[in-house]
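User: Hi! I have a protein structure encoded as tokens and I'd like to know what sequence might fold into it. I'm fairly new to this, so please keep things simple.
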């Protein structure tokens, strides 16, 4: 109304609102940057269409800029689903675990993680070149200097290595991934804090499942070991109780 600064009832505000285009705010700097790119004839937009519809097709699905970035990041990350069903499948199938970097010292995380898995029916194959040099053993199993040596020893006994569990720094993972592929392992498991996307991609291209940044002991206790019975929030919601543990 004149003099009041208000629009008459029913009159629409001229121009674009701040929530135009599927709820994406024009105040978003990511949006403004792409809106400055002129439309190109023959591409997705007609004259006057905002350039974001051309530069980022994810907007057509109603995604925000953050969601679109996350989608592109996930496309580059490992393809093995990081789900409870995947972890159950891996831990249920992989019964022989080569633990690379297994320490003989009882207070080290690698030691008590491997000891836990051994106590729950898994066979542990230690891989530690320092201990193997002296002909030593860990958890009653002879230690090997490499995955190749470990695979040959297990093959002579009529077995195979199902999982390669890595207690190594992230930068040490690529050659271990190559060895895991070469020995025909089913899974490459990287412990908490360990992640290497290129090595994971290489292993997955060869048919391995890759689990990153997770502890095999924690996941087994969460999914199979009755951790939830003690009141710990495991993040698993189910009305079923396991009738038979997989060991």
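Assistant: Happy to help. Inverse folding works backwards from shape to sequence: for each of the 247 positions I chose a residue that suits the local structure. Here it is:
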């Amino acid at each position: 109304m004149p003099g009041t600064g208000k629009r008459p009832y029913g009159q629409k505000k001229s121009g674009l609102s701040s929530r135009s285009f599927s709820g994406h705010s024009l105040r978003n700097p990511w949006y403004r940057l792409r809106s400055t790119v002129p439309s190109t004839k023959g591409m997705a937009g007609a004259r006057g269409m905002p350039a974001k519809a051309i530069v980022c097709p994810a907007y057509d699905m109603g995604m925000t800029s953050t969601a679109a970035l996350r989608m592109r990041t996930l496309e580059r990350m490992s393809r093995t689903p990081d789900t409870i069903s995947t972890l159950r499948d891996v831990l249920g199938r992989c019964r022989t675990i080569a633990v690379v970097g297994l320490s003989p010292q009882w207070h080290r995380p690698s030691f008590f993680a491997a000891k836990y898995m051994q106590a729950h029916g898994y066979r542990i194959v230690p891989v530690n070149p320092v201990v193997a040099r002296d002909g030593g053993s860990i958890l009653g199993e002879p230690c090997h200097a490499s995955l190749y040596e470990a695979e040959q020893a297990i093959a002579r006994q009529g077995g195979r290595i199902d999982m390669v569990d890595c207690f190594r720094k992230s930068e040490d993972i690529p050659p271990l991934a190559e060895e895991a592929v070469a020995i025909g392992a089913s899974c490459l498991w990287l412990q908490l804090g360990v992640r290497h996307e290129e090595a994971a991609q290489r292993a997955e291209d060869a048919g391995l499942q890759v689990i990153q940044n997770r502890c095999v002991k924690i996941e087994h206790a969460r999914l199979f070991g009755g951790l939830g019975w003690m009141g710990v929030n495991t993040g698993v919601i189910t009305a079923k109780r396991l009738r038979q543990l997989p060991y």
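A useful reference point when you look it over: The CA atoms of residues 177 and 203 lie 6 Å apart. Feel free to ask if any position seems puzzling.
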